[in-house]
Fold:
Amino acid sequence: MNKYFEAIEKAKVARGLFESFGYSDKKDTLEKSHVEDIFERDAPSRGFTIDKDGKQIKERLQKMLADEQQTCTMLQVTWTEMLSKFEDKPTQPAIKELYYMVDGWEDKLGDLPLMFPWDKTYCNAESPSVDGYMESTPSAEAELCKQRREYNDIVQRYIGCKKEIALLQTMIDNFSDEKIYKLTVKEAAMLGW
Structure:
């Protein structure tokens, strides 16, 4: 029974918070968009931010960086393994849209793996049967196309990881340990607070 009363009290406090932002039981229905407005869009102008020093933020970013580096390594092992199974090799540089927003990408991302061109990743999956009708059983060529697509997908994810690592490293390098930063609720939640 005690938990019941605790829940009611928490609900009253929450309702009071929403009412203080101009939402009332009689006029408005609370929706997800209202919560987003209160805690994200209008938060800085209302002074509703979370203060963290640069050292705390950098610690969280370091954890994220380590996770991203581990994922990147696993993806590299995966695409390298897949590459060894192909008789033909990819010939096309990675699509610039995957990394063009990273300034100095040549230095930050390193050598990016080549990819298979689109026409090598999609082909007709049907083959003629004995009686002249088309079968839906994938041919060996269709299976090879599928494997090339999977390889390209892994490479794209790998490039995404490399971009994330470059971004995280840039952020870590630019936060001052002693400085206090005002984070929105969304930013703080993304960092695990």
